[in-house]
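Reopening: Polysaccharide lyase family 1 protein still failing for me.
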Amino acid sequence: MARIQYCLVSFLAFGLPLVSALAFPGAVGFGSIATGGSTPFVVTSLADSGTGTFRDAVSASGRNITFAVSGYIVLQSPVSLSSGITINGQTAPSPGIGVMGREISASGKNNIIIRNFRMRQGNLDPDTGKSAFNMGTASNVILDHCSVEYGVFDGVDAVGAVNVTVSNSIIALPIGQQFGAHLETGPATWYRNLWVSAHNRQPLTKANTQYINNVVYNYQAAYTVADTGGLFSHDIIGNYFIAGPSTTSAGDDYFQMNANQKVFASGNFLDSNKDGVLNGAAANTVGSAVVLTAPWNSGSTGLATLTAQQAFTSVVASAGASPRDQVDAFVVSTVNSLGTTGAILTNQASTGLSNNGYGTL
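Support: Ran it again with your exact input. Result attached.
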């Protein structure tokens, strides 16, 4: 009875679907209902395909995947995930696990949990219509402490996705379209993520959205709705927008916010002067959107436990896969320059990092 009462209280307090357990302890937001998989499967090979590989691991539903190997898996073709799986990248030996060169797709699947995993597409992928991670028309998906870089079409593509959380992750350095993330349908939660050096879509969200304690650096357009005809609500709380060398208009921290949108914006800051010091000012003006006096979702206030300044410190210290590798260290170093370094790229090799810009795991 106590468990039932607890779940009922959680549902009433947070406005989220009623579930018996979270995806993992500490999971938040709409994707926290993802159930993942339970059948153990250990990845024992860094090969692209074959027995014991990552591609083998995700080929069947219901699996709880751990890693006995570390390093990059160089993909020769896209990888399609099955429904009902958990990817536990945190189990890989140091320095961790990641994929490079092709898209990871959860398109049309459901109940997927991905943690501590690196997805680095880059120009090794000849298909310019693919993204680093695609979850179009998927449902019940949570990415936590992931690192998504060098997306070609988008870093994260989630058109038609339902019940999604992306938390504590790095979405950075998209090439090609140079877009961070695109999500439609929703609802969706973007929580304590680090967005770095994208032209736009950080994210593009055509959905009812929680956007809480994120940091966006060196943008040309940050939080975007794209003048959509859809009627959506947005809780935008405690985020820090920081202009960088590629930022031509710091006032595009909120972009194409039209009167169809309802927005609760509180505690957000914008540092626009590119002077190497974190010294922003309040930034809660959201275009022509209808201004809400309270969050549209009752759980948003409970998630927004950090000020924008505290979010900067926390996100820069802990977002992304752990331990941090060369790519994430490079990303974070540009953010810590606070306006003086950073660039929007067309090729991952432009970072100057080893392994043609992918860095070495």
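The chain has five helices and 26 strands. If you still see a failure, please send the error message rather than a screenshot.
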